[in-house]
Amino acid sequence: MQRNIWCGLKLSAIIFILLLDLTCTRQIALLIIDVQNCFLPGGSLAVTEGDQVIPVINNIRSEYKADISLVVLSQDWHCSDHISFASQHKGAGQVIQLSYDKSGSLCDENNSCTEVAYNLTQHLWPDHCVINTPSANFSHNLTHEPSDLVVRKGYNCKVDSYSAFYDNGGFRHTELHDKLKEAGIDALIITGLARDYCVYYTAMASKTLGYETYVVLDATRPVTKETGDSAVADMKSKGNIKC
Ligand SMILES: *[C@@H]1O[C@H](CO)[C@@H](O)[C@H](O)[C@H]1NC(C)=O
Ligand SMILES: *[C@@H]1O[C@H](CO)[C@@H](O)[C@H](O)[C@H]1NC(C)=O
Ligand SMILES: *[C@@H]1O[C@H](CO)[C@@H](O)[C@H](O)[C@H]1NC(C)=O
Ligand SMILES: *[C@@H]1O[C@H](CO)[C@@H](O)[C@H](O)[C@H]1NC(C)=O
Ligand SMILES: [Zn+2]
């Protein structure tokens, strides 16, 4: 079966498409990416209008409860001196290059790699979503049920993780793929923050891993319009999306 990323459709249209194909019974999971205080208005890395995704996501949950087998909330969960924090790189620009050895260990003053296996471009961010701080909590306004699966990412201090599936070097996977397979999930509806980073990387990973992938644009907001637009264009071209 062809696995596509569908993006920009209203959710009702997506559900219609899913239900239309009666020859293939799909198990659908709703993925809610990083709807945490740090990314909402008032947070240290606030996404403009980030709070406006919350009622849309809550509505998807309640309206399509019968069609959604599993709800997953991802949670950005960083060490207080995380490598992605600009505060850890005084004097650096907005973007730096990080080098890792073949085991995925950062090459720095404590690990002079004999051979660099990976260079990663790292965008530097304000301190955000630090482990066990209120900033890392999900918004109180987001519907959250005990049966939801919570997947934390970015807790390795030396490598960032935009995707909820694996870190930016692809060194280590989270439990997400295994849990989805266990639940027999084959289609993902992706929502949350931010459209141009964690939603985008999660959607691309989802497609790579073989899930039928849907991104609900009204349930996402970008950090900047430009990167948001290019993320959508990229998801469309690589995913053969019909919007
Ligand atoms: C290197 O190790 C020392 C001692 O453990 C530590 O204090 C320092 O922060 C480390 N440097 C980096 C860049 O991690
Ligand atoms: C990593 O970057 C360095 C310098 O920027 C370059 O010399 C090296 O070839 C790159 N290594 C890889 C694996 O891309
Ligand atoms: C943040 O979430 C944790 C775990 O769910 C909870 O114990 C704590 O009270 C929350 N903190 C705030 C400020 O809401
Ligand atoms: C939750 O929703 C209420 C009512 O819409 C709003 O006043 C409040 O600011 C929201 N809080 C958060 C944390 O989004
Ligand atoms: Zn982060």
From TrEMBL:
The lineage of its organism: Eukaryota, Metazoa, Spiralia, Lophotrochozoa, Mollusca. SUPFAM superfamilies: Isochorismatase-like hydrolases (SSF52499). CDD domains: nicotinamidase. Transmembrane segments: none annotated. This is nicotinamidase. Residues 1-25 form the signal peptide. Pathway: Cofactor biosynthesis; nicotinate biosynthesis; nicotinate from nicotinamide: step 1/1. One of its GO terms (molecular function) is metal ion binding. The keyword Phosphoprotein does not apply. Keywords: Hydrolase, Metal-binding, Pyridine nucleotide biosynthesis, Signal. Its EC number is 3.5.1.19. Residues 29-239 form the Isochorismatase-like domain. PANTHER family: LD05707P, PYRAZINAMIDASE/NICOTINAMIDASE. It is an enzyme of class 3 (hydrolase). Gene3D superfamilies: Isochorismatase-like. GO terms for biological process: pyridine nucleotide biosynthetic process. InterPro entries: Isochorismatase-like_dom (IPR000868), Isochorismatase-like_sf (IPR036380), Isochorismatase_Nicotinamidase (IPR052347). It comes from Mytilus galloprovincialis. Belongs to the isochorismatase family.
